[in-house]
Amino acid sequence: MWSFFARDPIKDFNYELLPENQEKSGIWTLSRGKRKTTGEPVSVFVYEVSQGTEEQTQLAKAAFKRTKTLRHPNILSYVDGLETEKSLYIVTEPVTTLAAHLKLQAEKGGASDLEVSWGLHQIVKALSFLVNDCHLNHNNLGMWAVFVDRAGEWKLGGLDHVTSNQGESTSLPPPKVINPDLERYDPPESPGGGGDKWTGDVWRLGCLIWEVFNGNLPRASSLRSLGKIPKQLVPHYCELVGANPKIRPNPARFLLNCRSPGGFMNNSFVESCLFLEEIQIKEPAEKQQFFQDLSENLDSFPENFCKHKVLPQLLTAFEFGNAGAVVLTPLFKVGKYLSAEEYQQKIIPVIVKMFSSTDRAMRIRLLQQMEQFIQYLNEAAVNSQIFPHVVHGFTDTNPAIREQTVKSMLLLAPKLNETNLNQELMRHFARLQARDDQGPIRCNTTVCLGKIAPYLNAGMRQRVLISAFSRATKDPFPASRAAGVLGFAATHQYYSVVESASRILPTLCTLTVDPDKNVRDQAFKAIKSFLSKLETVSEDPSKLAEIEKDVTALAQTGGSAATWAGWAVTGVSSLTSKLIRNAPAGSEAPPAENSPVPQSAAGPAPTNTASKGVQQDRSYSSEAVKKQSSDWSSGWDADDSWSNEKDADGQGQSSPADEGWGNDWDEDGSLAESFSPTPRSKASTRAPKSGRVSSAQEGVRLASDYNWDGAEGKSATSDLFSSVKCFTNNHAFTPSGLSKAELAKKKREERRKELEAKRAERKAAKGPLKLGARKLD
Fold it and tell me: 10 Å Cβ neighbour count for 413?
């Protein structure tokens, strides 16, 4: 009756055995399993009790006890266990037998010497722990007693025959009694025939080394044939299998010999593994140096080791060790081995957190290497957690940060929502193109705008593109002007015939007399393209609808952004930072020899009357569109100020509305050590007044070399432009005849007089103060 209410302990066991891939390991059967509650994978060693196996049952119970009590990083980890009258279960970390692991590696080309050196290091270290620290003999060392975990690390198991080496009596039978085939692994001397306590175990260690490199040991005499044992290991191997037991080294001594200079275990992989085992007690400077050197060595490390051993340490170092940007390069290298699901679970949360960091080095490395992880980012994370932090880079005081931020938009644009793409991003692009003091950054902004144009909505394209590219054609930096021309050509399908004739062609025609020959060449090509379009419609008006079908087309959805942004996320440095370091503020380049229109330095700037006429008639834009987002509209529509109002040197001056971009900017334009979202000062954000650039800007790639058609191009961040010289419009004075400095001084004097007059008016209105009266203002 009581047996009816008794519960079966096996049914209540917390682990479930999986029937496939069962392996025999001595008296045990190794099965795969999982925890019932969480599905966590485990390995389960099962022993079934049967009649006439009393000696084996005794060994199984001894192994159960030893596995449960012996704890060491290189000994098989005990998780749980169950002992019943009919069976014994030992649950361990998920492992496979060494024989099965080496067979799998042989199918892939064979295990590398690096992997084997670290595996033998772990087994010898575990054996040294048993012999020297626990005063135990293993007595069962062989291929069947070594297991390999998911990271490829070797673990010592097979603790069935472990006995004390301090003279205590034991009733356990020797291995050859249970399995006669194991007799060939016994040392040649008789038990107790001399030598130290470890002599039997180190002999079996020599047999293990022979089998790792040469396969199954047919007989003991085969140990004399070295086979494929590496030359570095041969002298130490010969000591292990020496006939004289007194010369066989202690496991600890054998380990030191192999770790000596030139030894088999003296390599970068073993050094890295040892460092990772002790990383928690290392100094911060040592950790930094280790992660810097790790990237170079990862390519030679086993894939499973990188996924299951290196990756957790990298994530821990960033989360708790303040490792900073140095973990990024090895982190992304290891990420290549992960599946999409594993990448989402392990790396994406860390990347999202990294974007909120104030460390400049980390932010710029994230932007440079965005191509490696952009495909794993979902749109919700990009818009809510990443983009709000990235946009701070547009106003950073460091030009390299601003440049990389612009380039990163090529990858982020397909994933941005309506507000972030058509309003927030356009506002920052307007500021950069009009006010940034670095010509390459203004050029890159124009290039980026041309590439992301398909993702803008139709209304924003009509409002922004013509104004932005027209502004670029008036930029003092030649590459920016070329980029503006190519921007028109690359986005020609988004302009109506009326816009092409009345707004674009007049702008392009002015560039046919540009001082730079490349700009002139690109302008002529673009003009021919637009004229061909107009001629087609003139000859056959029925083709108008076909030609203008993309003018009001919907924005494209985000696709594979990594394939069409070749130069967007490469290189560590950029031309912009080089210009900042090398170019003095006042340096100039000589005038162009091939300039078709030489001008007097004191001559007034020619006025683009055609552009004025077009700008006065903007019938394409409705009143509702004109009222949208006054911030970015003042930025893009400031194109008017390039042609209507001139600086002292003849270049465009920002309109009053555009001046509103920087009214409350920080006056400190210095490069801070740590990232700060504080925008740059007015002085540092204005486009350069002179059209000339320093000789340091020579040797830069033209905008015509960019991959405008959307195909994948070569990565060349450090060579953004090809060789080109930049020239000035040679207008040193304003139309009023005053120099730039005199005009600024005159304006300050007028402003001072105006303020003094206002103060005098307020004082007169209040009247004279009475004696003893309290002054309240």
Answer: 24
655-707 tens-digit pLDDT: 333 333 333 333 333 323 333 333 444 334 444 433 433 333 333 344 444 44
- Helix 458-472 vs helix 478-490: angle between axes, to the nearest 10 degrees? 150
Which residue type, as a one-letter code, is found at position 156? L
Burial class of residue 514 (count of CB atoms within 10 Å of its CB; 0-12, 13-18, 19+): buried
Give the rounded distance of the alpha carbon of 277 from its chain centre: 25
Q: Is the pTM of this model over 0.85?
A: no
Q: Is the dihedral of CA 70, 74, 76, 77 positive or negative?
A: positive
Q: Which of 689, 698, 734, 727 is nearest to 514 (CA)?
A: 727
CA 281 to chain centre: 27
CA gap 38, 240 in Å, rounded: 45
Candidate ranges 96-100, 218-222, 335-339, 670-674; pick with highest mean pLDDT: 96-100
Give the β-pairing of 87-92 and 78-83. Answer: antiparallel
- CA angle at residue 772 from 771 to 777, to 5 degrees? 95
Model pLDDT for residues 139-194, shown as the tens digit of each residue: 889 999 999 999 999 999 999 888 888 766 667 777 777 777 778 888 887 666 66
CA distance 43 to 92: 5
What is the identity of the amino acid at 6?
A: A
- Contact (CB, 8 A) for 437 and 448: no
Closest CA to 372 of 559, 556, 557, 568: 568
Q: Which of 716, 694, 697 is nearest to 705 (CA)?
A: 716
Is the backbone of residue 651 left (phi > 0), alpha (psi -120 to 50) or beta? beta
CA distance 441 to 449: 12
Q: Is a pLDDT exceeding 50 seen at residue 549?
A: yes
**12 contacts: CB under 8 Å, gap ≥ 6:** none
CA-nearest of 653, 664, 641, 660 to 686 is 653
**CA angle, residues 374, 387, 490, in degrees to nearest 5:** 70
User: What share of the chain has pLDDT > 90, as a percent?
Assistant: 34
Which helix (H) or strand (E) segment is 148 a member of? strand 146-149
State mean pLDDT over 108-116.
Answer: 85
